[in-house]
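G.,

No rush on this.
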Amino acid sequence: MTNDCKRLFILDTNVLMHDPMALFNFAEHDIFLSMTVLEELDAGKKGMSEVSRNVRETNRLIDQIISNASFEEIKAGLSLERIHPNPNQEELILGKLFFETEPLAVDLPDSLPSHKADNHILQTGLALKEKYNNRNVTLVTKDINMRIKSSAVGLHSEDYFNDRVLEDADLLYTGWEYLEENFFETHGSSMKSWQEGSRTFYELEADKQCKWFPNQGLISQNDAGFNAIVRKVSHGKATLEYMEEFRSPNNSIWGITARNAEQNIALNYLMDPDIDFVSILGIAGTGKTLLTLAAALEQTLDQNLYNEIIMTRATIPVGEDIGFLPGTEEEKMTPWMGALMDNLEVLTDSDGYTDWEKESTQQLLSKRIKIKSMNFMRGRTFQKKFIILDEAQNLTPKQMKTLVTRAGEGTKVVCLGNIGQIDSPYLTETTTGLTYVVDRFKHWGHSAHITLQQGERSRLAEFASDNL
């Protein structure tokens, strides 16, 4: 370790368990792995969980780095550049990977027993800080308590930030915005309009300051009621399409009408066959699940655009786990699908129908609606299906990629979630797969996103959401 200007990052096990590619995310700075970390990686390699898969991937990467290296080369540090996943990347500069090849120890306070793995990592970090006092030595860990203890013993520590999609969840793309009140006065003279069948389009000038994305909703604030969807922005021009109005009882979807402008935008996205991927965020009671199920039933049973509706969700309990569940895959998933089933009852509980007619409807739906577990999704391809991923905020970016890439020809994927209610202990608002997919898909012309903000469940639910 000769270059004093380079920082030395000591990686905790949880960083590599979370992201195996973390080895390549520290630019030109050096990385240090203690023997304790290697032992913990060895202990965590068994199993079929996402963490176990990440551990095995980390082990494979370390094996490639260390392959055919002599002890002296390992002691001097191994270059990370030669096995980087993008070796042709321009100006690729990476540091070296160091291992604990000799005993490193300093005295810890008596309150921190050295036989604990975390405390041994702290001990190694303090020894490195003492040995290389001219370098910035930093412990990188996702464990909050580990960072607290590190600060208490005088070792600088940081969280692992590279997995963050955004600096702040408030910066997440909402999928819609209000038009300024003088919109027509500003753009009316240069605006062109035309019709294609029942669809009305507008084209207007879009300067370099225009921040519109494909399929973004635009809501008028004045009495004009001009609500539109951005279809294309290119070469200084923006093409808008007049939004279909689903707030009218004459244009309901399976008996459901939009109760506000945001829900109207969501139904426009859900009913558009040219949009293959829709993400809907919103707090409890904003209508995410009800609108999605209504659109799915309309397009599957009435319009025959899709052969089947597939529902799935991350099975992470809010409270204590109730243990193993008996039955088939669908029966095991049924307790997790309570929200979807509740909304399905609302859609099928029509007045004026006999019990026999309602039972026949339920039997028809059971043949066209399938409940699947995420655990068996890998390797599958779904053709002409309407896939609903509920509680998607509990998915990691890698899990989200695995599920979305299951879509075959003619399949629509809808992700529902609330990033304010993350049950997974390993995810935050800025690292969840839902935030990741919203940010990565916003530039694509066949995807759409909407954040619903207005609660419509009941006055009790709305008051509880605002005040509890």
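When you get to it, here's the other one too:
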Amino acid sequence: MEAYIDCISEFFPEKTYCNEDFFNEFPQLKSKEASLLKIGVSNRHVVDPTTTSLDLAVNAAHKLFEEHKVNPEDIDFVIFCSLEFDYALPSSAAVFQNKLGLSNNVGAIDIVSSCTGFVHALSLAKGMVESNERKNVLLLFPSTLSKTFHKNDYNSKFIFGDGATAVLIKERNEPSIGQFVFGTDGDRADYIIIKDGGARNPINELSFKEDENEYGNITCRANFFMNGTGVFLFGLKTIPKLVNDILTKNNTKLEDIDFFVFHQANAFLLEAIRKKIDAPQEKFIIAMDQTGNTVASSIPLALNSLMKEGKLKTGHKVMFAAFGTGLTWGGTIVKI
């Protein structure tokens, strides 16, 4: 049997943070509005301090069960992909199993991955269906990244939004999920990092010392940090080669791809990548205006927008390409 993407549901926190809110909070940036708007975000959703990624995942799964008439008892494996977990142990996937009332025969694991997380989890699900006879693998991609931002980190506050997707992977006779390409460059791990608070660098008296960069953006070692310029150049150099590698491994030509659904990192970067790979604008999906960069959820959210709009047809080929923290990258081609 072959694995395929059966359905997707999404859930967002109630609180929104629009561009008007942003410029009210950071009035000194109004002069840079034109440049910021190129990022392609008008609105984002933001969790409150007491809401966890597990809470978002539970709500996304409930919506999937209701919207797509999925029987929770049919789920036989859960993959919880996030950067935030309720406890050091046990796994959030195990707690999720209890909260959703899933069978005790279900497998459940956490994986720590961010922007490339959807591709990582999808490859695991494909293997479980095609090698381990799992029939219904539930993938969860909750992001509460806003909790990690310094209060004066305007860069992160403008780009990212919180939210969650639940994706059901099932089996069928016809091939669907193609061959994967992966990459990792740990030498640039500090491009996207929270330096203090883990086993390597426990919180100390210097963890909250503010660090202001040349553009006036502020963060600290205990908060999220992203080298925006470095990540932009990384994406611009790495993704065109990734696209070629995906096409080669799947014996496919660029013109055979019906839609390109890449990690929704930044609309300006995505448009630059589109031009470098010479993909038609109407096939290249940019869908982050109302959500921002939602980390591992960004690809399933963009794919779901195509599904809801009725643009995806049976037999369409969709290329996924993701890149981010690690630094990592990966992708594949899926036949609908």
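The domain at 2-172 is CATH 3.40.47.10 (Peroxisomal Thiolase; Chain A, domain 1). DSSP finds nine helices and 15 strands in the chain.

Enjoy the weekend,
O.
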